[in-house]
Structures are given as C-alpha cells and as structure tokens.
C-alpha cells in the first residue's frame, strides 16, 4: 500500500524549507556535542524523541514566557477538567499523560501537569483560577471516592486544611462513589478547590476535590413545610413581634436535608405564606444575607403584613435603588439596605442616598441603623386625614353664577346639536379664538386638530402664530362648525368664575366629551376659558382659549360607565334656537314648576336646568340628580320629596354625593 502523501501540509506552522534548515542546524549541534555522555538533562532532553537537543532559555525571554503561559493554561485545564491524573509516581520534571476517549473530542495523549507542578506555577495562576470559578452565590463541592469515608472525617479534614477559613456544608450526601455537598461562599469555594490532592487519607489515597458553581433543586412538600415552621418558631421573638429570616438556608433545622434559599421564588412564597398565616400582625422582618438579586416577589409584603414597620434587607445583591420600588407600598419606619451593591453608587453622597430612599418611604425614621431627620409633615399623606369633597364650581358672586350657568347650558346644547351656526350670536364681532393641544407621545391621535394647534412653546414663527389665531365672529364659528361632532358629559363638568366685574366675566369650564365622527369615538378632555362681556340685553364671548388633552384613566372609566347628558340625536326633540346674546333667561325655577305639573316630558334644555337646580339644593352630583328626576317622570316636587325621604332613611349611597 502506498504511503500517504503529506505534501503541502504545514507541521507546527513551518514550511518544508524551514524544517530542512532546522534539521541541518540540529545535526551540526549534535555532532559538536557527540562527545558528551549522551544522557540529557531536562533542558537537553530531546523533543518528540528526535534526538534534537533543547537549548536552555532565559526565564525573561519571549520563549520562556510562552512556556509559562503554556504551563498556566494546562494547569487551569487540569483544575477544571473532569478527568483526574492518577499516578503513584510524582516527578516534577515529567509530564503526566491522560488518555481520553475520542468521544471527548480531544486528542489522545493530551498532557496535564501534576499537582506538584501546579504549585510551582507563576503567582498569577491562582488568581486566574479563582476568576474561572466565578463570584457566584452557591457552589457544588465533589469529593471523589468520598463514599469510602465518614462525613465527619471529610468535613474535619477540609476544615483543618483551609483553617482559619471555614464553611457550612449544605445537603451533604453520597451520590455513587462521590460525596457531594454545597457551600454558599466564594472564598470557601476557592480554598476548597486548593485542597485538591492535598489531603492524604490513612490508606495513602489523596482526596480529589472538584468545585463548580451550582445549587441543588429542592421541592417544597408538606414535610419541608413542617420543618420550616419549626425553624421559624425558634427565630420568632414575641416581645418585639419580629422574625429573623437572615441566612435562612443555613438554619440548623434545614441545612442537612434541604436547600431553603429564599432567593428562589417557590421557597420565598412558601415561607411568606406560612408566616402570614401564623403572624399576620408582624411588626419587624429580617431578610438580610439571603443572596437576593431580585426582590420583585416581595411586593406582596404590604398585603400579607399591613403592620410591618421594620424591614432589614441588607447584605444581599441588589444593584439598583429602583429595585426597592417593589416595597414602596409599605409604611416603613426603619429600613436597612447596607451591604448591597446599590449603596456603593452613593459613596460620598449620603444626602442623595437618604433623599432617594425617602421618596419611596416618606415616613422613614431610621436608615441603615442611623437616625434620620424628622420628615416634613406636609410631605406625608396621613391616612386618617379625610380631604373635603371636590366642588364642581368655584363662584364668589351668586348673580354671576346664575348668568354663567344659563349661558353655558345654552352654549353646549347648541354645540352638540346638528348645526352650530346659531353660535354666531354667542361671539362678539371682534372675538378671538385659539386652540392648543397638550404635548404627549400620542399627540397624533388629535390629527384633526393638529393643523390649528397654536402651542406657543412649539410655534415660534410670528406670522404662523398670527395666522392660527381666529379673529372675528364668522371665522370662529366657521372653524367650530368644521370640528368633529361631539357629545359632552355634563356630570364631568367643573366651572370656575375667577373674575367678575361690571364689564366682563372670566369663566373656566373643564370636562370630557366624545367624538362622534370617528369610528372608535374617542373620549377627549377639554379646558375652555371664556371672557364674557355684556352685549345688548345679554352676554357674548369676547375671547376663548380651547385646550384639548387625553383624559386621565379615572376620567375615561367614569365616562365609559355613564351616559352623556348634554347630547341630542334625531330621535330626541331638538331645542329651540337659543338667542345666546339674551342670556339672562326667565327664572329657571318658574320653568321647573311649570314642567312639574305638565304631563309630557320637558325639553332637553329644561331637563338640564332641573338637573342643575336639584343638584344645587340636594348637594347630589349631576348624574344622580338626573336619575332622580327621570324616575319620577320629571316632576321636580316629587323628586325633591323623594330625596328627603330616602336621605332621612339613609338609603342614598355615598357615591351620589361624590363630585
């Protein structure tokens, strides 16, 4: 069979010509030293059995550094490799060869240095090995062939070897031929790794130690829950109503058989459920030193322990202060965070640290064991303080209120009708009108209004500002007529009369309305400021600023669950055209009395006036006043008598008076 050709292949990165020159030089050197003894020292030993002598190198030479790096890499692999070199002989100048199967994906004859060689590695080798272990929370320690020895012997031997350092073995057990346990300390893991092949037993065997990051999987069952209860019973202090769960995974009641690490959500949930059932009025809780890096699951503490005032959660692994937002619903008076990486971010910035923590817990009195300045009283919302109910209007002049209410009722009745042309009589000949929209990430939803948005912070062009200002009765009403059809919710209205003089009134109206022209019929929030001036025998608008924005979540929910009162449709009787310039209408009480005796349903305008009057006299909100009148078929006297009867018997719910 012909020999396989290796032509063109590169051995060791050298070309054929280079290898020839190297062979010639080696032959020459060999002839010059042929008179020697023929026994080579370590530096003279031939490489690959070729008879080529090795020239000693200086330790500081480049090639020497390469050999050191090679030794370091091989030593690290020896520490982290699953295969262990087993040899009865030890020679610091000899390489030990481990033969691996091809299934391991490595070449036969891959060499590793022995333990004695690893001890003679450069000083930075141990540091690099420590880095490869990693700064984890838990480590698995494997004592090979540990089944032959008692647990006490192995633990005592390791403790003696790493003294003065120490460790606590978690869940020690025999798996196959090996003894396995877990530790929770980075330094202990590193020192245990250094014990590899350093402890000799009575039968001359050297214990092999392997250390890897990891922790056992431990399920929660009824037996474990009972053990947890026993452990927590010893940690509870009845005098202070406090529970110490620090380093719970190290508890002597649990550590031998279970891995009860609270950073595992299933363990934390089980423990909190047990505590909440036994001690629902818990006052203080210590969760320090439990390897927490995420505390999102602690957001249930305020529900399970409403009286919790003291919480220790220091010496964990919290990196960002915003992680404690999960606890902000607690009314804490004392908190300990010291020992978490987040505290390092506030080094030399203690005032900022206190301020940022107190934003989450305004009642806090102690932080990391230090007394804090007393909190400013008006920064704290006291739970026992009952705020006065919201008023739907602010008015100093009752006469002005009557005029403004009548004017706005007529205005919005026409505004929500099919034609807005009658509003020509509502505006002064020299009136001005401007529209603005609140900036937001969803401002595009106001696309029908955006071309006329006169936001002075966004519109810097003077000419465009002047163009967007509608001036004159006809341009204003023409623009208003082009706006989408609307339905306003009267029960969402507020009205403030901020200024009243003989020549003008300043009225601000806020509320919500629904657009009818679009498919989804969005709900908008508005704020309209009117300057009303006398005109003939009535009043008209001299200036208006119309501001639109998105409704709040509460506003939107309220609107979706209620009916628009100020709304008209083709099936409802249309109000007569109102001459708004004659806004001083007849006394609405007279119209109410007339409608009370009438058998037919009054017009929408009268309904609105009756609703407003009943709300003022009974202090009910507009929605419930409307319901009350509707149930008695718009008989005002019967509605008022019914209100008094139900109010005396306490049958009217409190929601009827919320405005």
Automatic annotation (TrEMBL):
<dbReference type="InterPro" id="IPR005637">
    <property type="entry name" value="TAP_C_dom"/>
</dbReference>
<dbReference type="GO" id="GO:0005737">
    <property type="term" value="C:cytoplasm"/>
</dbReference>
<comment type="similarity">
    <text>Belongs to the NXF family.</text>
</comment>
<keyword id="KW-0677">Repeat</keyword>
<feature type="region of interest" description="Disordered">
    <location>
        <begin position="1"/>
        <end position="69"/>
    </location>
</feature>
<dbReference type="InterPro" id="IPR015245">
    <property type="entry name" value="Tap_RNA-bd"/>
</dbReference>
<dbReference type="InterPro" id="IPR030217">
    <property type="entry name" value="NXF_fam"/>
</dbReference>
<dbReference type="GO" id="GO:0003723">
    <property type="term" value="F:RNA binding"/>
</dbReference>
<dbReference type="InterPro" id="IPR018222">
    <property type="entry name" value="Nuclear_transport_factor_2_euk"/>
</dbReference>
<dbReference type="Pfam" id="PF03943">
    <property type="entry name" value="TAP_C"/>
</dbReference>
<dbReference type="InterPro" id="IPR012677">
    <property type="entry name" value="Nucleotide-bd_a/b_plait_sf"/>
</dbReference>
<dbReference type="InterPro" id="IPR032675">
    <property type="entry name" value="LRR_dom_sf"/>
</dbReference>
<dbReference type="GO" id="GO:0005635">
    <property type="term" value="C:nuclear envelope"/>
</dbReference>
<dbReference type="InterPro" id="IPR001611">
    <property type="entry name" value="Leu-rich_rpt"/>
</dbReference>
<keyword id="KW-0433">Leucine-rich repeat</keyword>
<keyword id="KW-0694">RNA-binding</keyword>
<dbReference type="InterPro" id="IPR057125">
    <property type="entry name" value="NXF1/2/3/5-like_LRR"/>
</dbReference>
<feature type="domain" description="TAP-C">
    <location>
        <begin position="605"/>
        <end position="659"/>
    </location>
</feature>
<dbReference type="InterPro" id="IPR002075">
    <property type="entry name" value="NTF2_dom"/>
</dbReference>
<dbReference type="InterPro" id="IPR009060">
    <property type="entry name" value="UBA-like_sf"/>
</dbReference>
<dbReference type="GO" id="GO:0005654">
    <property type="term" value="C:nucleoplasm"/>
</dbReference>
<dbReference type="InterPro" id="IPR032710">
    <property type="entry name" value="NTF2-like_dom_sf"/>
</dbReference>
<feature type="domain" description="NTF2">
    <location>
        <begin position="403"/>
        <end position="548"/>
    </location>
</feature>
<keyword id="KW-0539">Nucleus</keyword>
<feature type="compositionally biased region" description="Basic residues">
    <location>
        <begin position="14"/>
        <end position="27"/>
    </location>
</feature>
<protein>
    <recommendedName>
        <fullName>Nuclear RNA export factor 1</fullName>
    </recommendedName>
</protein>
<dbReference type="GO" id="GO:0016973">
    <property type="term" value="P:poly(A)+ mRNA export from nucleus"/>
</dbReference>
<dbReference type="Pfam" id="PF24048">
    <property type="entry name" value="LRR_NXF1-5"/>
</dbReference>
<keyword id="KW-0509">mRNA transport</keyword>
<feature type="compositionally biased region" description="Polar residues">
    <location>
        <begin position="35"/>
        <end position="56"/>
    </location>
</feature>
<dbReference type="Pfam" id="PF22602">
    <property type="entry name" value="NXF_NTF2"/>
</dbReference>
<keyword id="KW-0813">Transport</keyword>
<dbReference type="Pfam" id="PF09162">
    <property type="entry name" value="Tap-RNA_bind"/>
</dbReference>
<dbReference type="InterPro" id="IPR035979">
    <property type="entry name" value="RBD_domain_sf"/>
</dbReference>
């Amino acid at each position: 069979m012909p020999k396989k050709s290796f032509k063109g292949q590169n051995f060791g990165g050298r070309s054929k010509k280079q290898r020839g020159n190297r062979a010639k030089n080696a032959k020459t050197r060999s002839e010059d030293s042929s008179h020697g003894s023929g026994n080579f020292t370590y530096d003279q030993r031939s490489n690959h059995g070729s008879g080529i002598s090795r020239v000693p190198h200086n330790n500081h030479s480049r090639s020497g550094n390469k050999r050191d790096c090679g030794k370091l890499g091989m030593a690290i692999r020896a520490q982290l490799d699953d295969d262990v070199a087993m040899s009865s002989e030890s020679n610091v100048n000899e390489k030990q060869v481990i033969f691996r199967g091809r299934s391991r994906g490595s070449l036969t004859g891959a060499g590793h240095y022995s333990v004695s060689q690893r001890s003679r590695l450069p000083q930075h080798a141990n540091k690099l090995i420590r880095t490869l272990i990693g700064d984890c929370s838990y480590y698995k320690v494997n004592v090979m062939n540990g089944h032959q020895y008692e647990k006490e012997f192995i633990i005592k031997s390791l403790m003696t070897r790493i003294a003065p350092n120490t460790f606590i073995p978690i869940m020690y057990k025999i798996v196959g031929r090996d003894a396995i346990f877990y530790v929770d300390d980075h330094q202990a893991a590193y020192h245990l790794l250094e014990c590899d092949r350093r402890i000799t037993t009575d039968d001359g065997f050297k214990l092999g130690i392997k250390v890897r990051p990891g922790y056992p999987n431990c399920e929660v069952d009824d037996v474990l829950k009972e053990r947890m209860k026993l452990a927590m019973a010893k940690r509870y202090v009845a005098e202070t109503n406090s529970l110490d769960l620090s380093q719970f995974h190290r508890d002597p009641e649990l550590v031998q058989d279970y891995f009860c690490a609270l950073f595992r959500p299933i363990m934390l949930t089980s423990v909190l459920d047990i505590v909440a059932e036994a001690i629902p009025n818990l006052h203080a809780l210590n969760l320090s030193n439990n390897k927490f890096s995420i505390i999102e699951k602690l957001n249930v503490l305020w529900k399970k322990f409403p009286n919790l005032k003291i919480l220790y959660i220091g010496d964990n692994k919290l990196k960002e202060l915003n992680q404690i937002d999960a606890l902000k619903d607690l009314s804490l008076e004392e908190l300990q965070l010291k020992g978490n990486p987040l505290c390092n971010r506030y080094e030399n910035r203690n005032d900022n640290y206190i301020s940022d923590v107190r934003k989450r817990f305004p009642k806090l009195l102690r932080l990391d064991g230090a007394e804090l300045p007393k909190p400013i009283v008006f920064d704290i919302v006291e739970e026992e303080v009952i705020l006065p109910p919201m008023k739907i209007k602010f008015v100093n002049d009752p006469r002005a209120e009557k005029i403004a209410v009548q004017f706005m009722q007529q205005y919005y009745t026409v505004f929500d009708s099919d034609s807005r042309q009658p509003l020509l009589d509502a505006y002064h000949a020299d009136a001005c009108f401007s529209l603005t929209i609140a900036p937001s990430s969803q401002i595009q939803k106001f696309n029908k209004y955006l071309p006329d948005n006169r936001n002075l912070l966004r519109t810097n062009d003077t000419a465009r500002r002047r163009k967007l200002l509608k001036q004159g009765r006809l341009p204003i009403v023409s623009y208003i007529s082009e706006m989408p059809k609307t339905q306003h919710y009267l029960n969402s209205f507020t009205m403030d009369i901020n200024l009243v003089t003989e020549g003008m009134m300043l009225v601000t109206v806020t509320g919500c309305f629904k657009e009818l022209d679009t498919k989804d019929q969005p709900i908008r929030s508005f704020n309209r400021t009117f300057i009303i001036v006398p005109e003939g025998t009535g009043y008209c608008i001299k200036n208006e600023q119309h501001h639109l924005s998105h409704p709040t979540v509460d506003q939107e929910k309220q609107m979706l669950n209620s009916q628009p009162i100020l709304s008209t449709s083709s099936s409802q009787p249309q109000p007569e055209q109102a001459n708004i310039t004659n806004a001083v209408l007849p006394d609405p009480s007279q119209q109410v009395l007339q409608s009370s005796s009438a058998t037919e349903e009054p017009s929408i305008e009268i309904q609105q006036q009756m609703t407003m009057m009943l709300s003022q006299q009974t202090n009910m909100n507009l929605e419930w006043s409307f319901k009350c009148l509707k149930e008695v078929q718009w008989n005002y006297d019967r509605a008022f008598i019914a209100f008094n009867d139900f109010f005396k018997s306490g049958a009217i719910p409190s929601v009827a008076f919320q405005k």
